Amino acid sequence: MRKICVLHLLNLKKVQSFGSMRENEVSQMIRKIGKLAASSELVNLTEMSMTLTSTIVCRVGLGKRFGRGFDRTRFNQLFHEVQALVGSIFCSDFFPSFSWVDKISGKFGRLEKIFQDFDSFYQEILEEHLNQEESESPEEDMVDILLKLRDDKSFPVDLTFNHIKAILMNVLLGGTETGSAILVWLMTALMKNPLVMEKVQAQIRQLVGKMGMVYEDDIEKLPYFKAVVEETLRLYPPTPLLVPRETIAKCNIDGLKFNQKP
């Protein structure tokens, strides 16, 4: 799966080809926030960031955008049910002989149902692509690429529909939750550190002006903003794989300065 993602799904050329689509979705979110702010309405950043990342991931992965024959409610229900089950504790994971506890509690039944629901969801997407229905994006989405690899006799892996569904599951769930979590933690950290937020705002406004738009190519011209994002990822990794660590002394790692934790 890693080879397929690196070489075919998430290579540099493919990621860059979806740049305009990402910028379009971000600009729509900013306009929506602007309208809510103008009317003094509350903004649910968690919900908005989840909507943004899920829309981008679905457009890149499935060639579909919510609201155009693609039911957001159905996807959200499936996604939230998976999140709830992933965060649940199953007795059978620790004591296999006590798997009957999970059956009695209904967790096994919920797992089977969500697997069936997602399977039918992905099957509908695959059938649409196999029937060559017109895609909303001029670029190939991930389903198109995976179906081509499936038909490629020279490809070393014998891809099946189940393999494709599993890859899409990882991409959709991982991409949606990870991207949303990073954005929420970043904004939370900025709200807790107003001086840092002022510096970020000043750097952005100096580059594009108060009413300008920041594009992906502009990120390299915003070193302080990049440092803030990197620090957010260090402090709040979306998928922590290492043992938690602290800086016991002031240090410098690859040009990044870290103060001793108070």
Sheet with the most strands? 2 strands, antiparallel
The span between the termini is 42 Å
Q: What is the N-to-C succession of helices and strands?
A: HHHHHHHHHHHHEE
Tell the overall outline: globular
Helix content: 55-70%
Overall number of structural domains: 2
If you compute it from the alpha carbons, what radius of gyration comes out, rounded to the nearest whole angstrom? 21 Å
CATH architecture call of the largest domain: Orthogonal Bundle
Number of helices: 12
CATH C-level category of the largest domain: Mainly Alpha
**Could you name the CATH topology of the largest domain?**
Cytochrome p450
pLDDT < 50 stretches: none
Main sheet strand line-up:
1-2
Strand content: under 5%
Write down the overall mean pLDDT.
Answer: 82
CATH homology superfamily of the largest domain: Cytochrome P450
Class of secondary structure makeup: mainly alpha
Number of strands: 2
Description:
This protein has 262 residues and is mainly α. The protein has two domains: 2-174, Cytochrome p450, CATH 1.10.630; 193-262, no CATH class. The protein has helices spanning 2-9, 12-17, 19-38, 45-62, 72-86, 91-94, 99-105, 107-130, 142-151, 161-192, 194-208, 223-235, and strands at residues 251-253, 256-258. A hairpin with a 2-residue loop joins strand 1 (251-253) and strand 2. Helix 4 runs antiparallel to helix 10, helix 5 crosses helix 8 and helix 10 crosses helix 12. It is globular. The two termini are 42 Å apart.
